Amino acid sequence: MKNKNIVTWLMAGGIAILPFLPPPNASASDWTYFLGRFHILLLHFPVALILLLAGWELWGFFKQKTATHLFQNIIWGAAILACLFTIVAGYFLYQTGDYQGELVRQHLWGGILLGILLLGTFSWRSQVLEMTKENATPQLPKWKKRVYPLLLTALAGLVLYTSHLGGSLTHGPNFLTEYSPQLTASSERQKPVEELLLFEDILLPVFKSRCQSCHNDHKTKGDFLMTSLASIQSGGKSDKPMLVAGEAEQSELYHRITLPLHDEERMPPKQKKGLSADELTLLRWWIEEGATAEMQWGEGPPGQEGQALATRFLPQFQQQQRKQIRDEKELAKQAQKLEKLGNKLGLVIKPDPLHKGYFSVAQTIPPAIVNDETLTELAPHAHLFSKLSLPGSEITDDGLFILSQMKALQALYLPKTCLKGQGLAYLQELPQLKIINLSYSFISDEGALQLLSMPQLEKVYLFGTSVSPEVWEAIEKFKPEMSLLAEEGPYF
Question: Which are the contacts of 79, defined by CB distance < 8 A and separation ≥ 6?
Fold first, then answer.
């Protein structure tokens, strides 16, 4: 018995030191990657086994059945081994550096505490069983009996919490609660249904998801803007009235949206998802009722068909509304966190007004020292940046590898730097990068040629660089769709 406890606590001590070992690094060995990825395979076993044990043991406790069975012992052994292997594999996966951030650290600590609690619960169980054997002790103290169910309950709670953290790493922190019907938005933000504005609250979000990719402030296909009621009423190149109050069929907007899929004038084009039948019904109802900004949902569309529409559409809309409010709250929290990081690094990090949900990074005035180490500090949040403006910084071509992790990056301003251009090859991995300013940098011919393998680029500023006229001409010839500009260009 004593030897068993020593082994148990040695295992607990072994996993307890994991968070204090050296942090993740980019030079992890192949064995680290190989063993780490077994975490994904193994993690389901301890979750199922621990929950099974907790339920079984609690049922036995309340039924006052304290006898142990061979099968129970086997399950305990399997749960402990599965948990330990999963923790070790998870630690190897953590060491690769593929997963970073506070949520990863919380998940790591959750797994380690779970392992320690599991071993502690098993040790306590062993002591209780030993003391309750015949002639071992006349009567087991009540407090010793009561501790065991508390440990089992804590064990079940911790395994659920740690599993939730692990799921959040893959699916996001709101994955479990995102569509919960019980979750309601804050009262100060959610309007009563009858006060919903048909255009602003319901139709405009529909246009945003279905139409604004082609009809926004930066891309107005057919000179038609769909970001507000006024812009829609202004129309586009066709000069036809987009909205005719009371006449849906005479309204060019409704006409274009309801054209057959094969028609070239249909909006949106057939390769994009159009409005649903319910959304079309709401749009028609709004137009026929006057197409005003003030029109509210009220009692909803008249008749049985209208009531059926409300039954189908409103729950979906309210779900979207709750999600939008949660997203806004999450964005506000993220903004506060990134603002603090920016203050620490001497940068200005704030929401990008042109790309909702993303952030821009710029230098302070006067500028602080910004180098590759600064980019490393930004790396855990790489997926959140859409614009980077670091003129005159000390970033090297190696630092561009870190920038290649910013998959949402659309504009990169690095004029007056020491970049030579070889690192531009890393930026091929950025699918949305449209603009690069490299003016007055030391871009060589070899570096400039990397631009040929970046099909996503639309505009590059190379004024004051070392690029020869021959290479400049070759780039323009082989990549005519990209504007190669002999201008200093904007710095932000």
Answer: 46, 49, 50, 53, 118
